[in-house]
């Protein structure tokens, strides 16, 4: 008996007109993840032979025949297919992997090399409730109750085009130019430039200037995605080591204070500055997990590095959006002029010896907590009439759902490799050892569940890491004294009380 094709609704077709490619992340009820790429060919693309007459006869919009969905990783060595070249033939449309030029038919997934990528049927249906044409995609086999975790446009040049005039405009917020601080160092070092992803990660971690850090992040990821690096570099015996603490410029070091001194400030400029500071550390965290744990786990697949380079790029985008908005709102207080804290890095230090612990504490506690507090922050900006900041925060929140998703995906991957360890039990044990005090609500249960964190992960959760037992972080060679963090509570202070 042939199984009827199960489908999942993706979006109104009109929402897909802003970009030519979209990331899709699906998660099943069983916790299985599938990452897909949706390709939308341009209206000038020629229809595949035999389809043109059908379109005329049925009155179908020709653009509806130009949607294709394929798995996001090349079945050869796991390269990201989002930046594939598209070649049109008389009878097919081909995606060419940027790493080794493997070709895959977007309809069948077949390759002349003998490999085959998974493809998924796409259908456009008119919704009877609102009359809007919506896109449905075939779901993967081997799972039930699939849900859409992420629908994200692929930006070819890191800066999205102007937003469409639809309700989803905030999801396509254009990225502003990178602004101050001034950079007097080239993006690519003139001597001994990095040739592997791990080398770029360590260079970026050792880059004090936040503007240059963002520029190097964009450049390194472009090289990685387009096969312009010699390798990932995590299997090399000579892989460089990341710094214990990423350096900061002198002005930032002078303004680093105890976390308690920057909590609960309600001024919008202060909030934007505090959030930008967190995003700068988040850029480093994304590169640190690559540089620190890649060489320790040579069995990690390319998809791991694709996920976390994507995360680094997201955090760079967030930092740029926040600092640009800060410059617009308060030109006299650019980024770096207000007090900042570094408590987020304490958790990085506590989890520096365990990838499982790092994923649990940083991505399934810290970032999940961001999902809880972001809506209140967004509402505060909204009540202040600051709709530009609202749009920025909506972009950040949508991205952070996918970051928690990636954390959950790789946490469960590790648990499976360790002998099908129960992920819930393993997570709660990691929090017990690596967190201080209660993991408090209220919780954004809907977005947490979307990312894979069901209630049994976090309800009644408490860490038992002793206040006096945390690591003492001595000053590093760049003069940035991290020692005060030894008594800092491991929590991200971004919870702002609503205005009364």
From TrEMBL:
Alphabetized InterPro entries for the sequence: DUF455, Ferritin-like_SF, Rieske_2Fe-2S, Rieske_2Fe-2S_sf, Sol_Rieske_ferrdox_dom
CDD domains in alphabetical order: Ferritin_like, Rieske
Pfam families: DUF455, Rieske_4
Rieske domain residues: 66-135
Keyword set, alphabetical order: 2Fe-2S, Iron, Iron-sulfur, Metal-binding
PROSITE patterns (UniProt xref): RIESKE
Disordered: annotated span: 234-260
Coiled coil: none
GO MF, any single term: metal ion binding
Protein name according to UniProt: Rieske domain-containing protein
Native source species: Collybia nuda
């Amino acid at each position: 008996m042939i199984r009827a094709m199960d489908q999942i609704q993706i979006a109104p077709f009109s929402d897909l007109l802003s970009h030519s490619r979209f990331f899709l992340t699906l998660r099943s009820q069983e916790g299985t993840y599938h990452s897909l790429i949706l390709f939308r060919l341009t209206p000038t693309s020629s229809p595949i032979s035999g389809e043109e007459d059908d379109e005329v006869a049925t009155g179908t919009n020709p653009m509806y025949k130009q949607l294709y969905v394929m798995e996001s990783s090349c079945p050869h060595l796991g390269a990201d297919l989002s930046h594939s070249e598209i070649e049109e033939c008389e009878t097919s449309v081909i995606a060419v992997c940027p790493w080794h030029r493997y070709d895959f038919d977007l309809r069948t997934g077949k390759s002349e090399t003998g490999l085959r990528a998974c493809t998924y049927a796409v259908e456009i249906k008119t919704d009877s409730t609102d009359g809007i044409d919506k896109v449905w995609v075939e779901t993967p086999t081997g799972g039930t109750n699939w849900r859409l975790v992420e629908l994200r446009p692929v930006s070819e040049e890191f800066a999205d085009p102007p937003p469409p005039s639809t309700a989803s405009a905030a999801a396509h917020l254009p990225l502003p130019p990178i602004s101050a601080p001034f950079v007097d160092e080239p993006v690519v070092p003139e001597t001994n430039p990095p040739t592997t992803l791990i080398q770029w990660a360590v260079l970026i971690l050792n880059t004090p200037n936040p503007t240059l850090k963002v520029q190097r992040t964009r450049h390194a990821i472009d090289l990685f995605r387009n096969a312009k690096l010699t390798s990932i570099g995590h299997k090399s015996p000579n892989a460089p080591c990341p710094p214990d603490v990423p350096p900061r410029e002198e002005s930032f070091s002078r303004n680093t204070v105890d976390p308690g001194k920057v909590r609960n400030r309600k001024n919008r400029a202060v909030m934007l500055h505090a959030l930008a500071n967190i995003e700068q550390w988040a850029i480093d965290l994304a590169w640190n997990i690559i540089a620190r744990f890649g060489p320790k786990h040579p069995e990690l697949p390319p998809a791991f590095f694709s996920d976390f380079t994507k995360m680094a790029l997201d955090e760079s985008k967030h930092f740029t959006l926040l600092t640009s908005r800060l410059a617009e709102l308060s030109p006299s207080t650019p980024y770096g002029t207000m007090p900042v804290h570094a408590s987020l890095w304490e958790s990085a230090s506590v989890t520096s010896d365990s990838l499982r612990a790092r994923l649990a504490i940083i991505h399934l506690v810290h970032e999940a907590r961001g999902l809880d507090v972001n809506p209140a922050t967004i509402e505060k900006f909204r009540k202040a009439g600051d709709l530009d900041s609202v749009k920025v925060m909506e972009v950040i929140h949508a991205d952070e759902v996918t970051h928690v998703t990636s954390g959950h995906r790789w946490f469960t991957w590790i648990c499976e490799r360790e002998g099908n360890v129960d992920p819930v039990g393993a997570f709660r044990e990691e929090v017990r050892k690596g967190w201080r005090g209660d993991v408090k609500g209220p919780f954004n249960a809907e977005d947490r569940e979307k990312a894979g964190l069901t209630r049994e992960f976090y309800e009644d959760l408490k860490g038992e890491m002793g206040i006096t037992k945390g690591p003492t972080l001595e000053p590093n060679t760049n003069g940035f004294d991290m020692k005060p963090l030894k008594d800092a509570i491991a929590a991200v202070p971004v919870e702002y009380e609503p205005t009364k």
